[in-house]
Amino acid sequence: MAEFTRQRGKRQEDGGLGSVLDLLLANARLVLGVSGAAVLAVATLAVKRLIDRATSPRDEGDPKAEQKTLEESWQDLALIKATPKPPKKQRREDLSEPLLSPARPPAPGEACKPKVCSAPPQTPRVESSPLCCLTLQEKLLSHYSSQLAVPEVQASLAPQLARSICAQLQNFLRSKCPELPFGSLFLSSPLLDGLGALAADHVNLMLPVVLDAALWSLIPGEDTVVRNPQYWMIKRTDLEYFPRGRSPWDRFIVGRYLSSNALNETLRKMLVASINWPAIGSLLGCVIHPVMASQELKLEVKHDRVELSITLFPVVEMEDKVLLAAPPEGLVENLWLESFYRAEVSKVKELDASDSGARQHCLRILNGICKSHPALRKLSGSPLTHVVLHLSATSSDWAEESLADRFQQVLEELVSYLEEGVLPSYFNHKINLFCELLEEEIDEMGFMVYRAISEPELLLKEK
């Protein structure tokens, strides 16, 4: 009896649960539609089977029955998982619109026009532009072509004007000072030698001073009063056998030494007072005037298309040395500065020719950058060339494809030299090319170059 009652109560519970599910499925067809009701029916059936198994008595000790029950449970769970999801209803764009718009009967005399379903507005496609991620190599080449290229008019007109002024000055010196054996004037400029950039705004005029080697000798820089190996003195020798006046340059002797200051002052007076620059400028179609305030012998040339600065340097070539009449500032007036410019240009071109390198290209970029940054202006020219020459001794790959790597390496080498405050000359390691820089200048340069190692764009910005 108890067993019967239990089974009956179970059947009643099952019957009650079945009634509830039937009612739910009947109403689901109205609410969810046919497809939604089908989905719910499948899920409900699977759940009902699980409930039946959970409430039905187990056959204890029958492994086959337990295995069958387990398999049916996994099948039902798989059935629920594999049931397709009902399609989502289209979201209303405007909540104020009703869900269903009742059809309006056509008015009398109104023709029934076919309903045209307009396509939903498409979202305009935005074409993504490629990100501007240029490599350092591309930035260097772009900077060189856009910022450092010399305009063609300047590149051709500036040397032409300089050569014309050079010829006029040569004729004047020969007529005014025939007793002084000056050599033939010649031009010297990074622009003409392939190492300059930015603008054709400066040219050097080299005036050779021809000395008799039997009457003059060189005193090394270490033995001079400044103890600087880059400055030399030119001593008059054998005055006992060849008295003063034997050499035409004896008039510029100060204390038995050929004075660079005395020669420069004589030439300055000629440039300022003796040469008719207005007439020469009118002949050449430009305006020429000497610069009075400069310690150097400098001319300013203004043309309609170009402005040019010309510096005159007396130069002595003896014992494989090239000495310029460019003494340091101060009371010392007999010193001559050793110039390595000709050797620098020759060596760089020789190295580039041997391995098809891009050293000249790299130097043009570096010189242009340093000239455009006031803090780095004193690094342009000779210091950069010597850094490149030092680096060439250890880095052999100077192909144009490696320009960015070599550029970065030059900056790193330059920082190391600035940290020590010493840049040895490539041709004479006793010479420190930073010796005339102030400590504050070295610190400022070092800070700028150090930052540029990680951010090369700092040097490539327009100034």
Automatic annotation (TrEMBL):
Residues 156-344 form the Mitochondrial dynamics protein MID51-like C-terminal domain. GO terms for biological process: mitochondrion organization; positive regulation of mitochondrial fission. It is a single-pass membrane protein. It comes from Eudyptula minor (Little blue penguin). GO terms for cellular component: mitochondrial outer membrane. It is found in: Mitochondrion outer membrane. The keyword Transmembrane applies. Residues 80-112 are annotated as: Disordered. InterPro entries: Mab-21_HhH/H2TH-like, MAB21L/cGLR, MID49/MID51, MID51-like_C. The keyword tRNA processing does not apply. Gene3D superfamilies: 1.10.1410.40, 3.30.460.90. Keywords: Membrane, Mitochondrion, Mitochondrion outer membrane, Transmembrane, Transmembrane helix. The gene is MIEF2. Residues 359-445 form the Mab-21-like HhH/H2TH-like domain. This is Mitochondrial dynamics protein MID49.
